[in-house]
Amino acid sequence: MSTFGATAGGGVERQAGSEADHATRAWFKGWLTERGFTVREDAIGNIFGLYELVPGAPYVLMGSHLDSQPLAGRFDGAYGVLAAAHAAHTVVRASAEGRVTPTLNVAVVDWFNEEGSRFAPSMMGSSVATGKLALAEALAVTDTAGITVAEALGERPEPVPGLEVASYAEIHIEQGRLLEEAQTTIGLVHATWAASKYRISVNGAQAHTGATVMEDRRDALYGASLLVVAVRELTELLPEGALHSSVSEMEVLPNSPVTLARQVNMNLDLRSASEEVLARANELLAEKFEEIEAKAKVSIERRLTHAWGLVDYPSGGVELARESAAALGLSHTPIMTVAGHDSTNMKDVVPTVMLFVPSIQGVSHNEAEDTRDADAVDGVAMLSDVAARLVSGELHEGDSYRLA
Amino acid sequence: MSTFGATAGGGVERQAGSEADHATRAWFKGWLTERGFTVREDAIGNIFGLYELVPGAPYVLMGSHLDSQPLAGRFDGAYGVLAAAHAAHTVVRASAEGRVTPTLNVAVVDWFNEEGSRFAPSMMGSSVATGKLALAEALAVTDTAGITVAEALGERPEPVPGLEVASYAEIHIEQGRLLEEAQTTIGLVHATWAASKYRISVNGAQAHTGATVMEDRRDALYGASLLVVAVRELTELLPEGALHSSVSEMEVLPNSPVTLARQVNMNLDLRSASEEVLARANELLAEKFEEIEAKAKVSIERRLTHAWGLVDYPSGGVELARESAAALGLSHTPIMTVAGHDSTNMKDVVPTVMLFVPSIQGVSHNEAEDTRDADAVDGVAMLSDVAARLVSGELHEGDSYRLA
C-alpha cells in the first residue's frame, strides 16, 4: 500500500483527491472485491466495503483514512484501514467456520480527507457522513490552486442509501511516545484533549523595506512573528507538558523582498488534557494579542473556528477493548488522544472503540514515522477480536444510525 | 498612465511582464513615437526612446521603471519615466528653437523589472544593460507559477547594437520623509546606504501539531519567527535610526494546519548609512543565529546574496544638479538613498545625476503613496534643466559606454 505516493524519504504523499490517493483507493477497492466485499462509495468519496452475514441487520463499521499529509509517514490512517480490512476478513472467515455467531453485518471504510491539508476542514468524510458538515459545502471547498473537492473526486457513482451502522471501531498509531515509553502495546482511548483553534489575520501596512524609517512601520510579518513566539512561550507559563501550542500555516501578503507585509493570515492551535489549563492559555493569549498590537502597530483579527472541551469516548467501548486486550494477553493502558480522528465523529452517533498502537519515538506527520512490525500485527489481532465481539452483538442495544 | 493596473485603493499593480505592465509599456511606446522618438527594445525588455540631435553622437539617457510592486503606488518609478520623457521632449524642442546647443543626443528608458517582486533580482534590466547580470540567466528566472522572464516578455524584436551612452539622469520619489520634513523640493542624491541581504533557510522537522510533545519539536516556523523578531530588535541595540532591518518574504513548508513546518525560506535585509553600524549589526545577527538554532532546535542556513558598503554617486553629477536647482530657485539638499535604483547600476559606467522629489509622509510600496503636484512639476522642470546641461556636454569628457 505504501508504494502509492511513495517519497524518496521513505514516506508517502497522498493528499486527499490526489492521483496517489485515487491509486490507493482503487487498490483498496480491488482488495475488498477480491475477498467478497461489496464496494460502495458515498457522495463525499467515503469508500465502504460491505459483507452481509445476517441479511438486513445493521453493520459493525471499522476503518480510518488512506489520505496523508504532504511528505508524511506510511502508518497514519493507512494502517487503520488495512487493519480494519484484515479484521473484517477474519470475522467473515470465523463466521463461516462457526467460530463467531454474528448478529450484525461487518463493513470497512476509508473516510475521505481526514487530514485536511489540501481541503479544509479535516475529518471531512466522516463529518459529512455523521451530518456535522453539509455535503454541498464540503464539495465546494477549494485547494490553493482553486480545484474543488467535487473536481478532485471526479465522476461520482449514483448515491445509494447511507449505511445503517450499529457500532464503530478504529485503530491508529499513537503519534506520541507514551505507549513506547511504557512498553505497552495497546492504548485504550478514553478521551480527546480539549482544543481551541483560531484563524488569525495580522493587519499592517505595506511599506518599503529599506526606505521606511523603523518607527513608521506597521509590519504584519513582525506582528505575526511576535505572535508565533508568544504562542510557543505560553507553554512555558503553564505546568510542563500541560499545553501543546502551534502555528504551522502562514500566508504573507504581498510576500515581496522589498515590501513590508500588509497582512499575514495564519492558524493557531492550543490543546490541553485540562480544560482549566486551556482556559488559562486562552486568557494569556488574549493579553498577548493586545501587547503585540501595540508593539508592532498592527491589528489582529481572530476567529475561534473550533473549540471543544475534554470529550470522553463512550465507556462501554473502552471496557470492551480492555476485556479484549486482557483476553489476548496484550499489555494495555487507558490513553487520551491529542489528535482528532474519524472516530471523534463516529463516537457521537454509535458505540465506538478507539485503539492505539505505539509510534516509534512518537514521530508522526513525517516520512520517518514508524511502528514496530510486532506492534502492528498485535494491533490487527486486537482489532479482529474487538470486531468479533461487536459482530456478536456486544455494545449493541438495538439502536443504529443511518449514515448520510 | 496610472489607469494601467489601477487598484481599488487608488494605487497600481503592474508587476514586471504582467498584462498591466505590457499595457503601460505599449502606451509609453506610443507616447514616444507620436513625439518623433525612435523606439527600440533590447533583449531583456528595456524600452528606449531615441532622439538624434547630433548625428552619430552618444546619448544622454534618462529614465526609471514602469513596473510596480503588488498593490503599489502610482509614483514609484513611473514618475521618473514620465518626467524623463517630458524632460527629453523639452530638450528636443529647446534644441529646435536654438535655446540649447546640443553636443549629444537624448534618449529615454523604461528599465525592465526594477522591482524584482515577481522575478528576482531587482534592477534586472539595468543590471543586464550594464553587464552585471548575464542575459541568459535573467531570461531564465521564473516566478512562483514557473513562468520565465523570457515567457513573460513574449516575442522579442531582433536585437540591435546597444545604445552608446555618455551620461545618465534619473528622478524618483524619495520614499522617505526627510525632504517633506525639511520642506525641501529637490534631493541631490550623493550616496547609497550600505546593505547586507541574506537568503535564509530555517530547517526543522515535520511533526504533528497536536500530538508531538513540545520538547520533541523542531519547528522551523518557530525558529523563523524568533529570527524575524531578532532582526527587528537589532535596530534597538544600535543608535536610533541607524539601522533599517526587515524580513518581508517567507515560504513555509509544508504549510499545513496540522503539521509543524519542516522548512521556512525567507529573505533578510539590513541597511545603514554607516558601514560600522552595519558591520556591528551583522556580528549581532551571527550571535542571534546561534541562539535561535539552540532554542528552537533548528539549523539555519544563510547565504549573503548582496552586500555593499556606502557607495557614492559621482560628485560631478551632484554638483551639476546643485547648480541646476540653484539656477531654478528650487530648494535643495544633499540626501542619501536607502533604496536601490537603476541609477545605482548606471553610475558605475557613466557620469550620473540622481534626484529625489518629496513623498508625502514617506509612504511608499503602498497604494497611498503620493507626491504633491507642485513638487512633481518642479521635479520635471529640474530634470529638464539637468537634461539641457547634459545634452550641452556638461559632465561629458569624451568617454561613453555601450550598453549590452
From TrEMBL, chains A, B:
<keyword id="KW-0479">Metal-binding</keyword>
<keyword id="KW-0862">Zinc</keyword>
<comment type="similarity">
    <text>Belongs to the peptidase M20 family.</text>
</comment>
<dbReference type="GO" id="GO:0046872">
    <property type="term" value="F:metal ion binding"/>
</dbReference>
<feature type="binding site">
    <location>
        <position position="65"/>
    </location>
    <ligand>
        <name>Zn(2+) 1</name>
    </ligand>
</feature>
<dbReference type="InterPro" id="IPR036264">
    <property type="entry name" value="Bact_exopeptidase_dim_dom"/>
</dbReference>
<dbReference type="GO" id="GO:0016813">
    <property type="term" value="F:hydrolase activity, acting on carbon-nitrogen (but not peptide) bonds, in linear amidines"/>
</dbReference>
<dbReference type="InterPro" id="IPR010158">
    <property type="entry name" value="Amidase_Cbmase"/>
</dbReference>
<protein>
    <submittedName>
        <fullName>Zn-dependent hydrolase</fullName>
    </submittedName>
</protein>
<feature type="binding site">
    <location>
        <position position="172"/>
    </location>
    <ligand>
        <name>Zn(2+) 1</name>
    </ligand>
</feature>
<keyword id="KW-0378">Hydrolase</keyword>
<feature type="binding site">
    <location>
        <position position="115"/>
    </location>
    <ligand>
        <name>Zn(2+) 2</name>
    </ligand>
</feature>
<dbReference type="Pfam" id="PF01546">
    <property type="entry name" value="Peptidase_M20"/>
</dbReference>
<feature type="binding site">
    <location>
        <position position="365"/>
    </location>
    <ligand>
        <name>Zn(2+) 2</name>
    </ligand>
</feature>
<feature type="binding site">
    <location>
        <position position="76"/>
    </location>
    <ligand>
        <name>Zn(2+) 2</name>
    </ligand>
</feature>
<dbReference type="InterPro" id="IPR002933">
    <property type="entry name" value="Peptidase_M20"/>
</dbReference>
<feature type="binding site">
    <location>
        <position position="76"/>
    </location>
    <ligand>
        <name>Zn(2+) 1</name>
    </ligand>
</feature>
